[in-house]
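Hi again,

Forgot to attach this to my earlier email, sorry! This is the prediction with F0G bound. I've pasted everything inline since the attachment limit keeps bouncing my files.
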Amino acid sequence: MTDAAYQKCINPSCGEEFDCGQSLFKCPKCGELLDVRYNWDKIEVPNKLSEFAKRWANRGNALDFSGVWRFRELLDFCEDKYKVTIGEGQTILQQNDAIAGYVDMNAGHLYLQYEGLNPSGSFKDNGMAAAFSHAKLVGATASACASTGNTSASVALYAHHCNLKCTVFIGSGRIAFGKLSQGIDYGAQTIQVQGDFDDCMRQVQDVCTKLGLYLLNSLNPFRLEGQKTIMYRIIEALGWDVPDWIIVPGGNLGNSSAFGKAFAELKQLGLIERIPRMAIINATGADTLTELVNNRKLIWNNGNVNQAIIDNFYADLTARHFSPHTCASAIEISRPVNLKKCLRAIDICNGVVRAVTDEEICDAKAVIGRFGLGCEPASAATIAGLKHLVAEGIVQKDQKVACVLTGHPLKDPNLTINYHKDKKGKFSNPPIEAPNDLDEIIKLIK
Ligand code: F0G
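Structure tokens for the complex follow:
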């Protein structure tokens, strides 16, 4: 490990610090989340972000090729010998006027950050490159995670690359087929728990503690360090300029937490002048963040979060035997583990939170498929949410907006087929049955 980085509890009345050689997923003293922090004066951070562009000239070096480690001074917690990469982060920021039109924005202002291009088809690989590097640093031999699907696919892929054993916990019947097939194909032991993601998340923490497995959920602070680089790549693709808004789906709230931290650090280092605003979009069937922030007025409050508001809400969920439900299975989560870090990100980025219906998600997904690079349902919550925010006048039509499309369209083919067949949705494009006859076929071609 480097002496420039350490772990620190986010609870201001605790604030315990730990070195990076420890594998912790919660503060051993108070149980709160941990951050990775840096002594920046011990790191040679370039004095302009654009200097990172030089690494493009050296793509034969795997660390320079990686879209995570290209920015390594900004996540400098381990020596190069531990760093893991399988080529993550080769992503595209696509400007898209057709989709801008769909959300009623002006042409030239909407960008889609397509994370489906990652090796396992989702943004998770950014986080795993960092977290598995930490796993190697601490000498882990076995890994585990709970997942709505993408984390399990990514963990399985990186675990077999690093030669670690791998067990993934998924809610039975709660994950999309593409993702399930990946975990199995990549050799993970897959445990289908009779419960939802939140049940799996609880179980996996206990299993990891009891058996000493290395946990790869976003409770792991090193994972979030890798996910910060999604923001660096957006800034890079905008010619080292920051957008006005970042729009991101909210599930376990790891991404939003990582993005807020990325911007706070860049500002602190003088590498950006202003911090963009952030919108976090829930599905209405899994809208804990929206309820807590918009209705129950939960705020970061310099780290002194009103725990009673959270406890009351969760007690209410338990009393109602509530289990979240949305077609965007990736974000079907009602007890997001990074809630407090996300509140901090909202504070840093002057953020807003919205929830969108499954119907809005499916329509937005079809529009992204027809006019963009496609995505899985959870990713489309960004465009559905942006449509609301433009209509409300919160996002201006001529502001520069970057939506993070978190996962590949092939992750959940069932939902796509169901939407399109039988003309179920506004943008359905059903396949047409044809007799095996040339004249009849020609009549059908439009
Ligand atoms: N989009 C996709 C495609 C996801 O897979 C997830 C989370 C999210 C958005 C939400 O991101 O948790 O950072 O707020 N998937 C996790 C999993 C929970 O297990 O694959 P978040």
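The chain has 16 helices and 13 strands. Residues 417 and 430 are 8 Å apart (CA to CA).

That should be everything now.

G.
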